[in-house]
Amino acid sequence: MALVRWNPNREMTNWQREWNRMLGDFLGDTTDSVTGNWAPQVDIYEDENHVVVSAALPGMAQEDISVNIENNTLTISGERKFANEEKKDRFTRVEQFYGNFTRSFALPNTIDQEKIEATMDKGILSVTLPKREETKPRSIKVKVH
Backbone dihedral region of 118: left (phi > 0), alpha (psi from -120 to 50 degrees) or beta? Predict the structure, then answer.
């Protein structure tokens, strides 16, 4: 049996998040869920040659997304616009997030910042961060005398 350290701040945050969710379900969505702050879900994986940051941005156009590198920090930002600006339709429920977002990630020193590439395919932004040659693992043959 593992010993788990109790953190009252985490418990209060979880309690508040759950309370807000229950009130939102009961009273209907608040404006925060439509145009408030949001952050896209991100997967980060690494192989021997690259680190890849993959962000879920469904429904967003390439021109609404910005990828920047500054001071060893990768920043992905943009804006998801509300799809139906006309007031003729009434929504019963809106669960997708809209508005501006920013995600930032510290880059390790092993990344070759001059060769970073970003691509968008089917709502998934992939930022490929190649590793510098001198930091890649290599095998050294041992000579016997």
Answer: beta
Give me the domain span that covers residue 28.
8-33
Lowest mean pLDDT among 21-25, 28-32, 56-60, 112-116: 28-32
Q: Are 55 and 124 in contact (CB under 8 A)?
A: yes
Residues 65, 42 within the same domain? yes
The residue whose two tokens read 């701040």 is: 9
Number of domains in the chain: 2
CA 24 – CA 144 distance, rounded (Å): 72
| Same structural domain, 74 and 110 | yes
70-84 pLDDT, tens digit per residue, is: 988 999 999 887 766
At residue 63, the 3 state secondary structure works out as helix
pTM to 2 decimal places: 0.65
Give backbone dihedrals phi and psi of 9, rounded to 5 degrees, phi first.
-65, -40
